[in-house]
Amino acid sequence: MNSLERVLAALQNQPSDRPALLLNAGLYGSKLTGASLKDHYRDPAVYAEGQIAILETFSPDLLISPFVLAGLGEAFGSQLSVAIRQPPNVSVFAAASAEAALKLPLPDVDSAPGILYLRESIGILAGKYAGQVPVIGLLVSPLDMPPLIIGLEAWLDAILFEPTVAQALVERLTPFFVALGKAMLNDGATALALTANLANRFIVPGSVVETLGQPALKAALADIPGPIILHHGGCPLLPHLPDFMGHPNVVGYVLDAGEDLGAARSVLGPGPLLLGNLSGPALAGLRPEEVQVLCNRALAQAGGDQQFILATCCADIPLDTPPECIAAMTEAVCRAGGVKA
Questions:
Q1: Confidence check: pLDDT of 35 > 80
Q2: Dihedral angle over CA of 185, 308, 209, 89, nearest 10
Q3: How much is the mean pLDDT over the chain?
Q4: Which residue stretches of the chain are H helix?
Q5: pLDDT tens for residues 218-245?
Q6: Count H helices, E strands: the chain?
Q7: Tens of pLDDT, residues 74-118
Q8: Are 33 and 322 in contact (CB under 8 A)?
């Protein structure tokens, strides 16, 4: 089976030769190619070469668009930091408050440079691996865009103390989210993976989840003409899965590191994909045999679940991760299927 066939089998609850593997290795591609991060996160051809190197070195079953979500904030006018060992981050926000952000123009998904970088990276990879390897477009929900534009503290202030303004900002950002999501799918993304942290009771009170977070998320996802994978975004997801069930176009969930895959399946029932549950950032401090133990534990939790994809979660796999630790994940899924790595 090729990677696309393997992932489609998981989506359809059909047997495959081995469990599929997803690596959040956007950053690590630059290590394999030797590209500077400045070029890696500005030139879509350079980024694509990094993902090609990841595929050729570790054989994951899905490739990802650049995990540089701060670029969405930059499209609104936020300024990014210059980093030499991690993706760019927002250093200066485009506006000071949610009310001020309402006055910002929406970026054009067909011309904003940072947006085109994301889209063209998808286009290069999708064109090269059409029919062979799925490409996942990484995004954030309209609820998670304001922290990139005004900062998390200002956004929480609006959510908690100015709910009418917060609602207005989410409604203003939703058409941009939908336009970008549609564009990524048109560029060749097989699915979109996105966070919805500000619809999670771990971050905001239940009243906010029920009146703003989940209704806004459902409305936004309903307009996306393709499959959606909801990512935990650094928050516990398992305790809050019921809030995220039944959403339009959602086909899978990425659990936080260490969350019990079997327990999640018991909550969800058959149907959606489960992805997880290995911490990508933690790989740098482990030995290959320790990674094997974690992989085996995840595979054991998943049991015979055919709708499971072994995946790193949390942030990027760090640059100083020994390649043997990443290869251990490939060896684990191959061993589980009884196929050659």
A1: yes
A2: -60
A3: 96
A4: 3-11, 28-33, 37-40, 44-58, 70-76, 98-101, 113-128, 146-149, 152-161, 163-186, 206-208, 214-222, 241-244, 261-268, 288-302, 323-337
A5: 999 999 999 999 999 999 999 999 999 9
A6: 16, 10
A7: 999 999 997 778 999 999 999 999 999 999 999 999 999 999 999
A8: no
Is the CB of residue 148 less than 8 Å from the CB of residue 68?
no
> What is the CATH number for 149?
3.20.20.210
Q: Is the pTM of this model over 0.85?
A: yes
Q: Is 181 exposed, middle or buried (0-12, 13-18, 19+ CB in 10 A)?
A: buried
- Residue in 248, 324, 240 with CA at minimum distance from that of residue 283: 324
Q: How far apart are CA 191 and CA 258, in angstroms?
A: 24
Q: What percent of the chain has pLDDT over 70?
A: 100
Structural domains in the chain (count): 1
Closest to 283 in 3D by CA, of 31, 20, 43, 2: 31
Q: Show Cβ contacts of residue 5 under 8 Å, excluding neighbours closer than 6 positions.
A: 16
If you count them, how many residues does the chain have? Answer: 341
Which range of residues forms the domain containing residue 96? Answer: 3-337
Please state whether beta strands 308-313 and 273-279 pair in parallel, antiparallel, or not at all (unpaired). parallel
